[in-house]
Amino acid sequence: MESNECSSISNNNIICSNNNNNGLFPLSMMNTTRYYNDGDIQFRPLEIDDYDKGYSALLCQLTEAKFTKSQYIERYNQMKKELDNYYVVVVEDKSKSKIIGTGTLMVEKKFIRGCALCGHIEDIVVDSTYRGKNLGLKMIEQLKYIGTLVGCYKLILDCDENNVKFYEKCGFVKKQAMMALYLPPQPKL
Ligand SMILES: CC(C)(COP(=O)(O)OP(=O)(O)OC[C@H]1O[C@@H](n2cnc3c(N)ncnc32)[C@H](O)[C@@H]1OP(=O)(O)O)[C@@H](O)C(=O)NCCC(=O)NCCS
């Protein structure tokens, strides 16, 4: 596990919240041996109460992400049922009860490579007023830790060209090209 971690984080201290009964996944799946030395900054699994701590507003710094509390709870509960698929990590500034960072590891079950697991890193964002403090890098570190723990053979992600350097600092390398096709909205089934 150690060799998979970014060297620039290795001496830092990350506090992982112990108060996690409502977490999307067990706290024990996160790297709790390293902690961040600002006592108010905590990394932990997403919790059902995080809507009220600005989770939607934070995601709006990434893309369109307006949703109601009931939509949040419905989606949270769907994810929680798929226990081994969705790992949404958040960073909370406890002094403000505010979610200031988030990132998701989505685990895809494949047939290839002996029914391997592939991890998709999604929706990485750090609040604009907290950027440049290595929180993004630590978030990726936590997702890499979980991905290794659950047995993913690789982690992949799509990003804008202007974030390539950030992900390279997190240990990723550029591979192939990304393609996208946006589909027309359909009525809900
Ligand atoms: C990208 C993002 C998550 C980075 O978070 P952050 O906490 O500011 O980044 P960190 O402080 O952990 O940066 C780690 C290292 O990467 C570098 N870095 C961060 N973003 C970078 C960028 N866009 N270009 C080049 N280097 C970057 C930092 O300078 C730092 O390097 P250093 O250790 O040599 O000083 C944050 O800028 C963000 O939320 N952006 C808006 C949303 C977004 O684009 N998310 C990515 C979706 S794919």
Automatic annotation (TrEMBL):
CDD domains given in the database record: NAT_SF (cd04301)
GO molecular function: glucosamine 6-phosphate N-acetyltransferase activity
Annotated SUPFAM superfamilies: Acyl-CoA N-acyltransferases (Nat)
Residue ranges constituting the N-acetyltransferase domain according to the UniProt record: 41-189
Reaction(s) catalysed by this chain's protein: D-glucosamine 6-phosphate + acetyl-CoA = N-acetyl-D-glucosamine 6-phosphate + CoA + H(+)
InterPro entries: Acyl_CoA_acyltransferase, GNAT_dom, GNPNAT1-like
Topology of the protein relative to the lipid bilayer: Peripheral membrane protein
Any GO BP annotation: UDP-N-acetylglucosamine biosynthetic process
Keywords noted in UniProt: Acyltransferase, Endoplasmic reticulum, Membrane, Transferase
E.C. number: 2.3.1.4
Top-rank taxon: Eukaryota
GO cellular component: endoplasmic reticulum membrane
Subcellular location: Endomembrane system; Endoplasmic reticulum membrane
Key word Endoplasmic reticulum present: yes
Pathway assigned in UniProt: Nucleotide-sugar biosynthesis; UDP-N-acetyl-alpha-D-glucosamine biosynthesis; N-acetyl-alpha-D-glucosamine 1-phosphate from alpha-D-glucosamine 6-phosphate (route I): step 1/2
Family recorded in the similarity comment: Belongs to the acetyltransferase family. GNA1 subfamily.
Self-association state and partner proteins as the record states: Homodimer.
Protein name, UniProt field: Glucosamine 6-phosphate N-acetyltransferase
Source species: Cavenderia fasciculata (Slime mold)
